[in-house]
Specification:
With 318 residues, this protein is an all-alpha fold. It contains 15 helices and no strands.
Length: 318
């Protein structure tokens, strides 16, 4: 008889391929014109269904309508845009369901316990969200690290006689990603008919950076009351560089506390996994009876509380 773990892997792979195929079948392929229309179109809802647009299948249209009516659709789309993931909300939801099913089947077939499989499936449900948060944090850090240089380039371009859209186009061509990508979107949106204020507001929604919000606020105020925008951007760039320097010093001083939190939180998990591989019958006592479940839940709660407390100690606002 085949090994249960092998069966679990095969079953999980089958479910994942089924979900991937279903996603490809019901997802509408967007053209370049469709994506540009989403950025700059000013059509009313009644005008969007023109006869020139390709009609979606009934299944795709029904799924899109069902998701659009939900309150989480806009938030999910914004989170995916902040992470720079080329996924629609329906694709992301299907991927999450596939991860849950794969985790459940792997856990249930490898341990021959539906309860363990359900617990692993619930834990796997949070994996796509954690990956999205990781992508957002990495992208935001990369954007903030180059923001002072970006503002300096904007100020120098304005001082040399460029207009603000031309200066942002210069940033889109000269700066590395993600700054080049985001300012390139701003330039395209302005070219499609959006005002500078609207395009910059979209930029702040995609990149939730306090320093970027400060820069956009200064540009909007300058448009209202006038003034030397290049000089204002120079002052903002100097402020941002000082904040980045101070944050770097604080991270160096608090590195020991932060990494101690990771070690304290991961050590019980790693030891549990090692015991599960070496003596599964021993570690399974934690999932038997009310006493075992109570100890497991209490341990998880205290681990999380300790990790959060150590993170709060090392989290110093600048």
């Amino acid at each position: 008889m085949a090994d249960p773990l092998t069966l679990g892997v095969l079953a999980g792979a089958s479910v994942f391929l089924m979900i991937a195929g279903l996603s490809l079948a019901i997802t509408k392929k967007e053209t370049v014109a469709d994506r540009l229309t989403r950025y700059g179109s000013r059509q009313t809802p009644g005008e969007q269904g023109s006869k020139d647009e390709p009609k979606a299948s009934p299944l795709t249209a029904g799924l899109n309508r069902a998701i659009a009516r939900q309150s989480f659709a806009a938030n999910t789309a914004r989170e995916l845009a902040r992470a720079d993931l080329k996924l629609t909300v329906s694709e992301y939801l299907l991927l999450s369901v596939g991860v849950v099913l794969v985790g459940f089947l792997l856990g249930a077939l490898s341990t021959r316990s539906v309860v363990v499989g359900a617990a692993i499936g619930v834990a796997a449900f949070y994996l796509p969200g954690l990956y999205v948060k990781f992508r957002q944090r990495a992208r935001l850090n990369a954007f903030n690290a180059r923001l002072s240089d970006t503002i300096t380039m904007l100020a120098n371009s304005l001082r040399s006689g460029y207009s603000l859209p031309q200066a942002m186009d210069m940033v889109a061509r000269e700066q590395p990603p993600p700054a080049s990508e985001e300012f390139g979107r701003v330039v395209r949106e302005i070219g499609l008919g959006l005002s500078i204020e609207e395009a910059l507001a979209n930029l702040v929604r995609r990149v939730p950076s306090e320093d970027l919000d400060l820069m956009v606020t200064a540009i909007n105020v300058q448009h209202e009351v006038g003034g030397n925008l290049a000089q204002i951007l120079d002052a903002i760039g100097l402020t941002i560089r000082e904040r980045v320097r101070i944050k770097g010093e604080i991270q160096s001083l608090t590195a020991q506390v932060r990494y101690s939190g990771y070690v304290v939180a991961l050590m019980p998990v790693i030891l549990s996994l090692i015991l599960f591989v070496l003596r599964p019958e021993y570690i399974m006592y934690l999932f038997k009876g009310v006493c075992g479940w109570s100890m497991t839940i209490a341990g998880i709660v205290f681990i999380v509380l300790g990790f959060v407390a150590m993170r709060k100690i090392a989290d110093i606002e600048v």
